[in-house]
Amino acid sequence: MSESPGIVAIVPAAGRSTRMGRDKPTLPIDGVPMVRRVLDALRDGGVTSILLVVRSDLPLPELGEPAPRVLFNDNPAAEMIDSVRLALAEAPATSAGFLVCPADVGRLDADSVSRCATVFLRRPDALVVACHGEKRGHPLILPRDLLTDVRSSLCDGGLNRLVRHHSARVLEVPCASSGVLGNMNTPDDLTGSTSDAPRA
Fold this sequence. Notes:
Elements: E1 7-13, E2 28-29, E3 32-33, H1 34-44, E4 49-54, E5 69-72, H2 80-90, E6 97-100, H3 110-122, E7 127-132, E8 135-143, H4 147-151, H5 160-165, E9 170-174
Parallel strand pairs: 1-4, 1-6, 4-5, 7-9
Antiparallel strand pairs: 2-3, 6-8, 7-8
Helix pairs in contact: 1-3
């Protein structure tokens, strides 16, 4: 697939996985660590500039090539938005868009990533959101001009508030795979059930 050089992917993976009871990024999905599956989907979907935010005590598996840049968030009270903000501060100044996809969207597929990236590159003013059926999921791609809002109190509760605040700029991208809805938070989620709300 063609690369999307104007898009930087941010993969938050610094959570404590309290509901799962084990570190989610390293859990195997079809024999592959969850975080590696997400990274592979991003790369195969054309997004090769990736910032991965983890705890420094997380034993990372082999992450594949091109390797993501790994950043650390060791604040035990941090929320996902804090990892997103940390990554944004390290993103290249030339980036036009920022794709956010948590590491627990374990069945994300390359086609969904490619569809969202292609739409964003055609409409770089839009807030691009993957959807399946009538439900929204990940990835979410936001344009550079909204970074001030992301860093403000507007988004202290997560990027879902950004999507609501700028609803007129939201562009949903239909995806064939239900994997875009699949935040895996509990052991039951690993057996095939999905949660359908974006939680960035």
